[in-house]
Specification:
This protein is an alpha+beta fold. Helices cover 40% and strands 26% of the residues. It has helices spanning 4-52, 86-100, 108-116, 121-131, 139-142, 205-210; strands at 62-65, 72-75, 148-159, 168-178, 184-198, 215-224, 231-235. Strands 3, 4, 5, 6 and 7 form a 5-stranded antiparallel sheet that branches. Strands 1-2 form a two-stranded antiparallel sheet. Strand 3 (148-159) and strand 4 (168-178) form a beta hairpin. The longest helix has 49 residues, at 4-52. 11% of the residues are buried.
Length: 236
């Protein structure tokens, strides 16, 4: 009878120890479940971010205003494949001629770089040669007295080749040249025949800022319009 209390005590101690081990195993299983859940959440988050990556690209766009109705819309993103509306090409041709045929010393460097964004590699080489300071016919030398050239586009006409390809246009415009310190402009009329093409837009953000749709001037021939009026007494 004297050993009964000891047996009861040791029995309770053993049960307590077993309970502690059971609780420890249960806590460990719970910790592993939490860790596995956290790992799955991390994997799911990584996959979600990977799938969202293409949505983080900055896409340039062109806002177009209808001249007759004033309706504003956004020109669809272009990838260099499908044909674009002629109104978009007319805009690029007009903008190119207006920017690349004018001269103002304050904007000459910016205009030079912007025009380069619309050139094919061959055309860009010719553009560099034209503007080279060693070239006597360079605009930098022709207008080093502080003169300027203002350009106004008059019309844009498109031509279709015999094979149905439409990649030629003529741009009629006037150039108003003013000598440095002069008060009058000498106005002449010109025609530029331009071969153009659309390619995949440049990946360079600076080029895409000027030319988001990949419009390229392949060839350009500019000549005075036959019979065009010349005026040298137009007030500034």
């Amino acid at each position: 009878m004297g050993n009964d209390p000891l047996k009861a005590y040791f029995g309770e101690a053993a049960n307590w120890d077993q309970d502690r081990h059971a609780q420890a195993r249960q806590s460990a299983r719970r910790a592993w479940r939490v860790a596995a859940g956290a790992g799955l959440c991390a994997i799911a988050s990584t996959l979600a971010l990977t799938m969202l990556t293409p949505l983080k690209r900055v896409e340039p766009f062109v806002v177009r205003v209808d001249n007759s109705t004033g309706v504003v819309d956004v020109v669809p993103a272009y990838q260099g494949g499908a044909a674009l509306e002629r109104s978009v090409t007319r805009y690029f041709l007009s903008h190119y001629v207006s920017t690349c045929e004018r001269f103002n010393f304050a904007t000459a460097e910016s205009d030079y770089e912007e025009c380069g964004a619309f050139h094919s590699a061959q055309r860009n080489q010719a553009w560099y040669t034209l503007w080279n300071a060693n070239n006597p016919a360079s605009p930098l030398n022709l207008h080093k007295d502080g003169g300027s050239v203002r350009v106004q586009v008059e019309s844009v006409s498109f031509f279709e080749r015999g094979n149905g390809v439409t990649d030629l246009a003529q741009v009629r415009y006037l150039k108003a040249e003013r000598a440095g310190g002069g008060a009058t402009e000498r106005v002449t009329h010109w025609i530029s025949t331009i071969q153009y093409v659309y390619v995949a837009p440049s990946q360079d953000p600076r080029v895409r800022r000027w030319n988001p749709l990949g419009f390229k001037v392949v060839e350009l021939t500019a000549e005075p319009e036959v019979g065009g009026a010349v005026s040298s007494d137009k007030p500034g």
